[in-house]
Amino acid sequence: MADQGGVFRPRSGKVRQANVTLAHGAGGRAMRDLIEDVFLAAFSGSSIHTLEDQARLSMTEWADPDCTLAFTTDSFVVDPIFFPGGDIGKLAICGTVNDLAVGGARPVALSCSVILEEGMPVDDLRRISASMRVAAEDAGVQIVTGDTKVVPRGAVDKIFINTAGIGVIPEGRDLGARHIRPGDVILVSNTIGDHGAAIMAARDDLGLSADLVSDCRALNLLTQPLLNSVSGVRALRDATRGGVAAVLNEFAQSAGLCCVIREDRLPLKPAVRGISEILGLDPLYLANEGLFVAVVESHQAESAVTILRGLPGGEASAILGHVRDEPAGALIMKSLLGGERLVDMLDGDQLPRIC
Q1: Chain-wide mean pLDDT for the chain?
Q2: At the N or C end, where does the chain have fewer CB atoms within 10 A?
Q3: Dist. CA 104–CA 175, nearest whole Å
């Protein structure tokens, strides 16, 4: 049913089956009922309720004429789909918001497309949709358009989600590894490896899950205050697959410089350190979903850390090291014993389907 403005008002209780069926992706009444009952009921207050084939956004509502438009997309296949600190729905929202945020953008709107496996419990889908709604509200973005597909059993594992996002970058803001200079300082916004350790514990039941919680969160709540207060931020990047090590190697290679960090400055929770030691993993390579790496002009590094430590999700922000000239393109770590070792990019993946 639609009101006079052409906006559909979803009615709950239309889907009475316990599990998703192929009919829910066939384009007929069952599919419409699933979309209205599960997704539209969750994503209230959004232009998605017009049910057009596209979202129509007024540029004048959220963009200045001189701003730059940022656009990104990502797909999420995490296993398990529910984990300590979040689920695939929250991850899909935060992951795309974070890709915009580390470019200096203010996230504005997201799309959401889901591929469902026949037989997926509808209650799980409701839980994921509700989680997406809360994550979007917390990040200050709207889910404005989407798509639903259902495939036979075994074609996907329960649910895969794709989200795309747009945001606006203010005039004059230009972040990137090309701006990094020798003498700049490297910092992280919080503790390292929380997401990867939480997923590992949830998947393998290692008995450490009580203290292992994913850091899944929207980073624009950290990046915007930082960028509004500190003019000397050179580059930002969220450390997802490949962890902090991957980001710093990418920075070093793009800038043609050397990133140097100190082992004794790595902010690690005891549980993350413990699971890494048990499994013989390096926490620098563990994935994060609520942490960014920043390179900042040296005279503003302490101010940046102070700002981040005063914000939720940035309490453990720390300076890890600095940038120097040689060896160009390398990441070096100074060990607890005072020596230096090369921290290279990973060959392969420590843990597949981490996000």
Answers
A1: 90
A2: N
A3: 7
> Is 227 inside a domain boundary?
yes
User: Is the same domain home to 162 and 234?
Assistant: no
Q: Which run of H or E residues covers position 147?
A: strand 142-151
219: CB partners within 8 A, 6+ apart: 94, 97, 98, 101, 102, 189, 238, 290, 291, 292, 313
Q: What is the pLDDT of residue 330?
A: 97
User: Is residue 142 located within the same domain as residue 256?
Assistant: no
Are the beta carbons of 306 and 240 closer than 8 angstroms?
no
**pLDDT-derived band of residue 4, with 50, 70 and 90 as boundaries?**
very low
The answer for 286, left when phi > 0, alpha when psi is -120 to 50, beta otherwise, is beta
Q: Are 217 and 332 in contact (CB under 8 A)?
A: no
State how far the Cα of 311 lies from the Cα of 189, in Å rounded to an integer.
10
The answer to whether residues 102 and 58 touch, using CB atoms and an 8 Å cutoff, is no
pLDDT score at 208: 61
Q: Is residue 270 part of a domain?
A: yes
Among positive and negative, which fits the CA dihedral 25, 29, 30, 35? positive
* Residue 1: per-residue pLDDT: 35
Question: Which tokens sit at 335?
Answer: 């060990």
How many domains, the chain?
2
Please, what's the largest Cα pairwise distance for the chain?
A: 72
* Residue 48 contacts residue 145 (beta carbons within 8 Å): yes
Torsion angle in degrees (nearest 10) through CA of 131, 133, 136, 138: -80
Cα(15)–Cα(41) distance, rounded to whole angstroms?
Answer: 12
